[in-house]
Amino acid sequence: MKNTFKIVFALIFIVVWGCDKQKFADLNSDPSTISTPDLRFSVTTAIDNMYQNDYTTWFYNNFQYIYPWTQVTSMQGGNTSDFVTMGPSASFNIYSSLFPQTLDVRDRIDKMGETEKASYQSIKAVTYAIQILPAMHNTDNYGSLVYTQAGKAPYTNPPLLTPLLDNQQLLFTTWLKELDGAIDILTNAKDQVTLGAQDIAYGGDYAKWAKFCNLLKLKIAARLVNQDRPQALKIAAEVGASKAGYMDGLGDDFIYQKGVKYYGTGNGMWIGYAGKNLVDFLVSNRDPRLRFVFEKNGFNAEVVQAFLDAGKALPPYVAQYVNVDANKKFTGWKAPGEPWVRYFGAPLSPDAKQDPANNIYFNQSELNKLTVGSVQKTYASTSLYSEKLVRTTYDYTYPTKPGGRVIELKDNDPGLNVILGTSAETNLLLAEFKLLGATLPKSAQDYLNQGVTLSIGRMDALAKNNQMPYYNSDPVYTSVDEAAAAATKLRSTEVADLLAKPICNLATDGLEKVYIQQYINYMNTPGDVWTTVRRSGVPKKGSAYLAWENFTVSGVEMAVPRRFVLDTPGKDDINYTNKMSAIAEQGITPTVKDPIKLNTEKFWFDKQDPQYGMGPK
Question: Do 430 and 221 form a contact (C-beta atoms < 8 A)?
């Protein structure tokens, strides 16, 4: 070993013979000494970990549970009596990589000299916002969690290996204090080291981080609105008067862009039918967000004509919009025309699936099968949630007649954009709090109008970036005018037209209408959809606008979960005692998947919320 070392050292010495003494010293520095890392890179890694476990989160949490339970979609093939039964689920793993980065950044800054430390305070401040958002998503689903004592082992002696789990009251209080401190620093600190391009969210713009912190405060206030309304209104008023301002333009949105080669989940999803009430509502109001969330069905003019030529019956909800002449030729769409006549949802109740009258929705594989010569195709007559919002690498084949052209959207691999927080959300929350009595400078109507405008703008931008099918045109149509008319991109007058409709007029049923707009805006962030539905009771049963469809089996209304299952930790878990204490404190029966218990044994923030479909408190 000694001889080997001598040989290696001799080779190094020859290589560096011409170097000066300083370079020689650098090459032969003590290997036990680790260079001080660039803290900007650590922040980049932390931001990168704000959105993770994307495949399991979308496949299980969103498409199997949250979307079906909130009536956005059904489960694949339609809801059955067991759609309220939980299986596997996912959470953001904030402890393996995110917390080690944020805590290390703070620790290194705290150990700096006073002058250097002062210039790193904004970098330290953003680490709180980075970890609060994914932690909030986790507590929405799983309740109490390790936060205030998370990741303390490297900084404690003896190492803290059995951290306490914080209940939601403590979490919200802690987060509000951290956010207030961060906002103060981000708006007042001078001569700060910038994150620059290492900030993959805001490019080092600390003013935008401060606004994002204010959004996080509003999200906490939303979770307090039925549990501690005075506190919720106080938080909203603070945001409205904040020196930092609040998110109020598309440029303020927190859009997660992991990189040009990040395409999302990669694997396909099991996606159910769009909810009928939701689609009907969006079509009736000509809300363009319908086109940015759901895909068109397969019945374009060419396919309709192929069905007519074969003497095959069209689905009745498609046929009602088809004009046919005496020679059985398709002559155009009835109002509202393309693209609106290509969107249909399905009933969501398990009883509805058992009704033979609904085979037009649930037996599409047979009823919509068409054979021409030796070629057979099946066409979807209802809409699905667009997978382009989840992954951007899959190829899309446009529907054409059997034996007809092959038209594909392929080799379009844009980097996926993911919403983590928007100005639309900010304004819609402010509209809610204004109606509830918060002291805010603008009217609820002003906030709603701005929120809807920004919501549509953001969804349009997302659809464009992710290259959703039909965005610029429908290539199946041979006429340029028809192809353009069938495009799904935003038209110039659509925002103003929607805002002029009664659904956006807050003079009547204002709170319900605001919650409906929040519900629609959150279609791309499912966790927020579920939180909104739980705390608002919207969609509302019997609503004149967007009605909740009762989930029934044999005429009996079903219990729908309001939280995820909490597993019982193993007795060999080093933190077993603390985990069991947290479960007991919350009044939760662990491991049990009974939908009734998952509905009635609620987390703290949800205890005073209305039941599904009961409307706002």
Answer: no
